[in-house]
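hey
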């Protein structure tokens, strides 16, 4: 099942986390569309860390949103943020997918051309973030810089989503991102 929504950016209303949770628990379709639009990128990137096959990762993402819809009543605001709950659900579903018998068989019986493309993709990843030590350098930054870089570059958040998630003005997020990038450039010269 693939979720598709038809609406324009102008129709979207901003939600606080509490309003969003309340709307989701009351099965408000607009709130669910908002949730999907604002969190799909971060959740998909998280799935890809465990499942490199983009098609399987997309299927898991769809299942995640279906489970969020079904299990939203189990979310307890006193135990953590909505995104943290969704991220935990996403990781668990991705891990479960790796344990499924068909996934293991599919992984063992892949077409050689697909295997070559996966190897190339993994090799490209090794020359990326972890290979050059970017993640380690990010963790050396001031906490406010580290938070925005982590959300933006590693979890796929847009600047507006970061502002909403961290409860900061958009200008502050932009400034922190710019300053963090300047600091990182100094480390890699």
């Amino acid at each position: 099942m693939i979720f598709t929504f038809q609406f324009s950016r102008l129709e979207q209303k901003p939600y606080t986390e509490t309003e969003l949770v309340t709307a989701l628990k009351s099965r408000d379709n607009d709130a669910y569309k908002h949730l999907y639009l604002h969190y799909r990128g971060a959740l998909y990137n998280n799935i890809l860390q465990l499942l490199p096959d983009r098609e399987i990762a997309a299927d898991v993402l769809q299942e995640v949103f279906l489970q969020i819809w079904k299990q939203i009543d189990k979310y307890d605001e006193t135990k953590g943020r909505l995104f943290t709950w969704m991220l935990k659900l996403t990781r668990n579903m991705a891990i479960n997918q790796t344990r499924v018998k068909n996934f293991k068989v599919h992984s063992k019986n892949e077409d050689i051309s697909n295997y070559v493309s996966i190897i190339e993709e993994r090799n490209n990843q090794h020359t990326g973030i972890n290979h050059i030590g970017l993640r380690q350098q990010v963790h050396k930054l001031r906490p406010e810089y580290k938070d925005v870089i982590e959300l933006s570059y590693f979890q796929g958040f847009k600047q507006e989503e970061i502002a909403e998630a961290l409860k900061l003005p958009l200008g502050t997020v932009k400034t922190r991102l710019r300053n963090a990038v300047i600091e990182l450039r100094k480390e890699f010269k």
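Residues 13-110 form a domain with the Rna Polymerase Sigma Factor; Chain: A fold (CATH 1.10.1740.10). The chain has two domains: 13-110, 122-189.
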